[in-house]
Structures are given as structure tokens and as C-alpha cells.
């Protein structure tokens, strides 16, 4: 199921009665509880969650069928996904990371630089990783309007204005 988008992860157990600590990747963390059943990465497992309260480092939640600390601990590291069509549509200038991965990256002159292989966000903004044969290693570039002036999802491409090394 390639249309699954990761929206969170189980960070471990919380308490002794089977509650888990969720890390939400949603722009509004509590929205993770509004998408209905969440799925495992391969789509084979369904997780019915009920948010309980904010906790340090995430959200407390109960998962249907999980009633002991040991069961909750066993789920640690499990990523939680939803089908792409359950996510809200975004304004024209916003993109889901999953939609950017795999796009071909071209310079302003139309020369292929490579493909977007990953998108990272460590708190200061999104970073695109572009892999290709033009550079010895992958390029890590900020996903800003100055660096990426054009994204065309329909055409599967984006324009990247790679800064000169001396800038």
C-alpha cells in the first residue's frame, strides 16, 4: 500500500495499565486521533486509538486490545499510518513530505540534478535531500522559496536554485 502516509509513532508505554506515549507528526499533534483507525507501515495491522492526555514528549493514548505495560512496550517504535486520501488537502504553497519524495530536481536552466530522496525537519524548517550523479554526495538544501522556487507535483518535478559554494 504505497498510499500510506506516516503520521506518528508509538514511543513506548506510559504507566502500568497499557497506555502508550504517541509521537504525533501532525501539524496539530492531537489531530492524530481524528483519522480513524491507524495502520502499520505495511497496512496489515489496525490500531484503534483514543487519546487520553498530553504527556511529556507526546500524547498519552489507549489502543484497543492493549491492556498491559508489556503489550504497550512491545509496540514501541511502531509507526502509524493513514491512507493518503484521509488527509486534508493543503493550500497551493504547502506539501506533504511524502509528495515531495521521488520528485525530479532540476536547476533553473533545466538540467537534471537528481531526485528528492528524503525530507527532514529537525525543528528549524524542512530540508530536502537530493541524490544524483552531479555531486559526490547527496545535497541537503533548505526547502524555502529562495532555494526551491517551483514545485510541480503533477509533472513530478521541482526547480532547485543551488547556492554557489562561496555564498
Quick one: CATH superfamily of the largest domain?
Answer: RimM
Number of strands: 13
Order of helices and strands: EEEEEEHEHEEEEEE
CATH class of the largest domain: Mainly Beta
Structure commentary:
The chain folds into 2 domains: 4-86, Beta Barrel (Elongation Factor Tu (Ef-tu), domain 3); 97-159, PRC-barrel domain (SH3 type barrels, Roll), CATH 2.30.30. The protein is elongated and about 60 Å long. A hairpin with a 7-residue loop joins β10 (126-131) and β11. It has 167 residues and is mainly β. The termini are far apart. The protein contains 2 helices and 13 strands; from the N terminus they run ββββββαβαββββββ. The strands form 3 sheets. A 6-stranded mixed β-sheet has the order 11-10-9-8-13-12.
Record the SSE blueprint.
Elements: E1 4-13, E2 20-24, E3 38-39, E4 46-47, E5 49-55, E6 58-63, H1 69-74, E7 79-83, H2 97-100, E8 104-106, E9 112-121, E10 126-131, E11 139-142, E12 150-152, E13 157-159
Parallel strand pairs: 8-13
Antiparallel strand pairs: 1-2, 1-7, 2-6, 3-4, 5-6, 8-9, 9-10, 10-11, 12-13
